[in-house]
Amino acid sequence: MIAKEYMVNERIRVPEVRLIAADGRQLGVQKTFEALRIAREAGMDLVLISPSASPPVAKVVNYGKFKYEMNKHDRVAKKAQKATGLKEIKLTPKIGVHDLNVRISRTKEFLTKKHRVKVSLYFRGREMTHREYGERVVHKLLAAVAELGVPEAPSKFEGRSLVLVLVPK
Questions:
Q1: How many CB atoms lie within 10 A of CB 101?
Q2: Contact predicate 89/119, CB 8 Å
Q3: 79-110, pLDDT tens digit by residue?
Q4: How many Cβ atoms from other residues are within 10 Å of residue 20's Cβ?
Q5: CATH architecture of 86-168
Q6: pLDDT tens across 139-158, in order?
Q7: Considering the entire predicted model, what is its pTM?
Q8: What phi and psi values does residue 127 have, to the nearest 5 degrees?
Q9: Residues 133, 152: contact at Cβ < 8 Å?
Q10: Cβ 154 vs Cβ 139: under 8 Å
Q11: CA 40, 45, 46, 51: dihedral to nearest 10 degrees?
Q12: What CATH class is the domain 7-80?
């Protein structure tokens, strides 16, 4: 998390600022030294909120409390942003019934957690001559997870593997 540095008190080097009081009232455009005097009388700090505005906006606040609130806001925003990942499930055409059930349960788990799932079915050696076996396995998996996810696009071959991406409903 990148902490934004704010200009505070004497570090503010602009001739005048648009001043906002501690209670949120607009105090209008003031000379910087006058705004700093108002902040000192209130026992608070003058913080430059928006330096790129014309004139720059400054606010009378308790700087320690202000920094705490901004960090708290950043943490909440970061938590809400949580990106959904891409999980991968690997299969083979000759997969056992139990192994396939384990892959299906893992796929369901990923889809309920709102992750996208890449299903890769690898063909080894002469298995490439009977692609329909692999397609049957993929169709079983799709039928089992149909209520939770749908294919993003039709399955396609990439080299010796059949690839399919599932997205949560």
A1: 13
A2: yes
A3: 777 666 889 999 999 999 999 999 999 999 99
A4: 19
A5: 2-Layer Sandwich (3.30)
A6: 999 999 999 999 988 889 98
A7: 0.54
A8: -60, -25
A9: no
A10: no
A11: 170
A12: alpha beta
